[in-house]
Automatic annotation (TrEMBL):
<keyword id="KW-0547">Nucleotide-binding</keyword>
<feature type="coiled-coil region">
    <location>
        <begin position="990"/>
        <end position="1031"/>
    </location>
</feature>
<dbReference type="GO" id="GO:0007059">
    <property type="term" value="P:chromosome segregation"/>
</dbReference>
<comment type="similarity">
    <text>Belongs to the SMC family.</text>
</comment>
<dbReference type="InterPro" id="IPR024704">
    <property type="entry name" value="SMC"/>
</dbReference>
<dbReference type="InterPro" id="IPR010935">
    <property type="entry name" value="SMC_hinge"/>
</dbReference>
<dbReference type="InterPro" id="IPR036277">
    <property type="entry name" value="SMC_hinge_sf"/>
</dbReference>
<dbReference type="InterPro" id="IPR027417">
    <property type="entry name" value="P-loop_NTPase"/>
</dbReference>
<feature type="coiled-coil region">
    <location>
        <begin position="810"/>
        <end position="907"/>
    </location>
</feature>
<protein>
    <recommendedName>
        <fullName>Chromosome partition protein Smc</fullName>
    </recommendedName>
</protein>
<dbReference type="GO" id="GO:0030261">
    <property type="term" value="P:chromosome condensation"/>
</dbReference>
<keyword id="KW-0963">Cytoplasm</keyword>
<dbReference type="GO" id="GO:0016887">
    <property type="term" value="F:ATP hydrolysis activity"/>
</dbReference>
<dbReference type="GO" id="GO:0003677">
    <property type="term" value="F:DNA binding"/>
</dbReference>
<comment type="function">
    <text>Required for chromosome condensation and partitioning.</text>
</comment>
<feature type="coiled-coil region">
    <location>
        <begin position="733"/>
        <end position="760"/>
    </location>
</feature>
<dbReference type="Pfam" id="PF02463">
    <property type="entry name" value="SMC_N"/>
</dbReference>
Amino acid sequence: MHLKKIEIRGFKSFPSKTEIIFEQGITSIVGPNGSGKSNVSDAIRWVLGEQSIKSLRGDKLEDVIFAGSENKKPMSFCEVALTIDNKDGILDIDYSEVTIKRVAYKSGESQFYINNKSCRLKDIKELLLDTGIGKEGYSIIEQGKIDEILSGNVSSRRKVFEEAAGISKYRYKKEEGEKNLKITKENLSRICDIYDEIEKQLRPLEIQREKAIKYVDLKKELKSLEVNSYLKEIEAIDTQLKELCSHKEILQNQLMNLENKKDKEEKKVYTLEENLNKLDLKINEQNEQLYSLKIEIDHKKSDLELLNEKIKNIEFNQSKNEKEIVTLKETMLKNDEYITNLNKSKQEISERLGNLKKEKNDIDSTIQSYNEDLKNKQKEIERLKDEIITILDEKNKKNAKLSSLRTTLDNINEREKTIKREIEDINQNIKQKHFQLEQYLIKKNEYEERFKNLNKDRNEKHNKSITIKNNLDNIKESINTANLKINEYSSKLNIFYEMEKQYEGFNKGVKEVLKNKNLKNILGAVAEIINVPKEYETAIEVALGASLQNIITENEESAKHAIDYLKKNNLGRVTFLPLNIIKGRKINNNEISNVNGVLGVASDIIKCDNKFKNVVEHLLGRIILTKDIDTAISIAKCTNYKYKIVTLDGEVFNAGGSLTGGSIKSVNNLLSRKRMIEEFEKNIKIENENLNKFKNYKIQTELELERIYSDLNDLDIRIKEEDKLILTNQSSIYKVNEEIESLNSLKSKLEREEKGLIQNINYTNELINATLSEIEDTNKKSIAIEERVSFINDEKLQKEKLYEKDVAIYNEVNLDIAKLSENLKNIQKDIERMCEEKQSLENIIKSKEEEIANNKSFKQDLSEKLILVRVEKEELKEKLNDIELSLKECKLQRENILSQLKDNKENLKHTDEQFIDLKESIYKLESKLDKLELSQESYFTKLWNDYEITFYEALKIKDEFIVIDKKRIDNIKREIKNLGNVNVDSIKEYEDIKERYDLYKEQKEDLESSIESIEELIKDMEQNMKFEFSKNFEKINENFKVVFQKLFGGGHGELRLTDLSNILECDIEITAQPPGKKLKNINLLSGGEKALTAICILFSIILAKPTPFCILDEIEAPLDDANIYRYGEFLKELSSKTQFITITHRRGTMEASNYIYGVSMQEKGISKIISLKIQDAQKFIDEEVI
């Protein structure tokens, strides 16, 4: 397995997609400081799951996203993909090539992928466990990791060794196992609580179940007797019903005949009423027709008047139109004369316009000839001017050259003087720099003294912060303890709340009634409304027995509704105590007040609302409570065994002398629940107060710790400032030394330059003389060309005068043509206008003539219509007379029908009276039938209410030979009554609770078994971890001894476990003895020796357990050249099994590399990768720095 490539996009200084291919062997990534080469190492650590942004040199996640540069916008996300060759299957995944990718967004969201499939960070960690790869492994080593190996922090150092020893996977599984163990124990605790509660309920239910079975058997026998008794009563009633039904049938036949007669008479009345209605409708219609005809006659009169008026208007319009036609024809004759005159004028103007156009063409030919000649002259002048410009340009160049040479000569002379002044200034500056150097050396001593004092103060503050931190940890432990107690109490409290909510321990019927919110005026069960002191709970629970589950209602009506609900849903039986009818009975306290050991009447012991006083006295008012059984015996004798007596331990003396006792197992906790809830609530309140107190202590301690941290932060800032001043001062000393060297170098350079300037002065004088001669020749050529231009200009002026004269004549002719053309256009418009006017007049005359013709036709139509309207009017008058006659006849018919209708209604009334009498007889007979049916129905109801069976279902169990013994029925009922309250549902409830009991028992045993298995597994893993760690640590130690000698060139190094009895938690001590020195603890070595020792440990680990690839980020920076060479040679040895990617700027490491990549920052803030040859690498770094 090896690293194939990395793809970076948007990560830190790599905005564009960057791909780096890694081959097996050693690959170096080089570049100057600040070029971004370490960002490659950061990218690999980040993609492998590094969560600490500070370790990636940032403050928050968005700091790893490219922040933009002068020419490139910031990015909103970054992604890094690492491709690993897995052909050898070291990674536990079915792919020969694995790509791990991580994407982050500025919103803070981060996503992981394995082969482009979304995954969790946990999946990546598990995939890389025990490979040495990952942020906890030793595949990525930077300066910080070197410090971790050498630091006094036990956990930091152990992580590297544990990964190398191959026990990281075991430790991870052990931690997972411990988490599972904790969860399993919590589950077991919860299951045990439920198991104990169910166990308490089981025994009482078993007793109730036995009682219920006896009750069911008695009920079965009673059912057989009573059902057969009811069936015999039903049969007797059925015989009487048949006789009454026969008599009813005779009466119904008589009623039917009378009903037929009544229907016939009703039809006659209906027919007469129908005829009367039709006649009334006809009379109304004729009245409406009379009214309509009168209105229509009036309309005809109006139409005649309107037609006469229209004829008069037409005659008037005819006369008016004839006069207008005569006037319009006279106007047309005048227009014809005007058009003839306009055509004559048009002809004259057209002839004159033709002559002017001919004259214009002649002048235009002459102008064109002049224009061509002038253009040729102008071209010749332009050509000569171009020659002059060329000559002048050449002259200017010569003058510019002359000026430049003279300026150069002046500059050389000025520079010579400047150099002499600069050499004097440099000598003065060198003297001043030597003085500055002395001042900086004095400051150096002052800064170092202050730095030492500040570090001393910081150490004191740091020690104090550790003490306060320990106190804070103790307070946090107390807070955790309080939280655990609160959680424990809350858990138990929730169980009791749930039991109350679900009415656990109550019988099924009681539960269902209490849960049903639709049942009104249900006040609760007896167990819910009373409060009993803890010491009396057993006694009161025994005294009440099943009465604890009695339900209290406002009145008997509410109880009745509840009982109906229980019957309807087959939910069993419940005893109800209506407040309005329950009366309390109580023992006279004087009878028992003088007896020692008597605690009182049971009803006085408990607390409840006053409205329940009668209920409590009804149940407990005649029960005496005593301390013990001896007192109970004494009281029973004194009271002649007429009262029930209960002891605190639950022994009972029943009225009459029977005694009940023995061991009692609390079952339902119906009485103690409220008390337990109050106790848990009280405990939670106390623990919350403790929690608040500890939280206040925590806040105060945190504030004090924060103040110390603030002081430490201030000291750190001051130390950094002092350190910065020391570095700045050191830099200034270095800078002044460089400036002195630079000034001496500059002085030598200026002296050399002064010698060269004298030679340049002579050469420049020679060039000036040659340039003056060339300028004189150019002036002569320019004068000859200017004379030729003057001659051509004179000829051009004469031609221009003739041209301008012809152009003036041409313009006058053009103006005359324009005027005549405009006149001609106006005349044409007038002709067109007059023609249009003529046409308009002709159209008006035609329109008027058509109107005269139309009016004649319309007048004829109106005359004809006038005659027609007169005829229609006469016809309407005749129709009116006919309708008036018909109306008189209809009114006579109506009076006859009314007389017949009166006689028929009298007959119908007599028939109705007979019908009512007969119907009343039938009703009385039906009443008798109803009573018998009701009686029969009552037996049906008894069958259903008592046994929930129908009549037909009862017939199936009918026994013809059974003897109905009323005495036996009464005895059975008495036995059932003596059984008292029976919970029939207890049979099913017992089975359900037993099933739950068995289930939770099985779960409890499974969890206990799981805890044992997990504990055994953790123990086995610890043994494996110890064995693997011990074995591999010994290998690493042996390797360390050998590698130390190779890299140091001698000496001795060793790794030791500080506590062999606890090898999984103890510290790992590193000792080193470089050649020629005494054996030292690692902390006493120099910086370079420490770094080389850590590298020895790293190489020892890789030899013991090679990692597929290893990234080394400038870990060899503190080493000198000799050690670098040995470091490079050892890398080559290891590269046969491990692929190395080194980030370096050391030549020795580069020389040991097989491949080199350069990182440059040509544009500020943006890194680029360049592939390099080994010989070019150092040159690349030097050039980038410059």
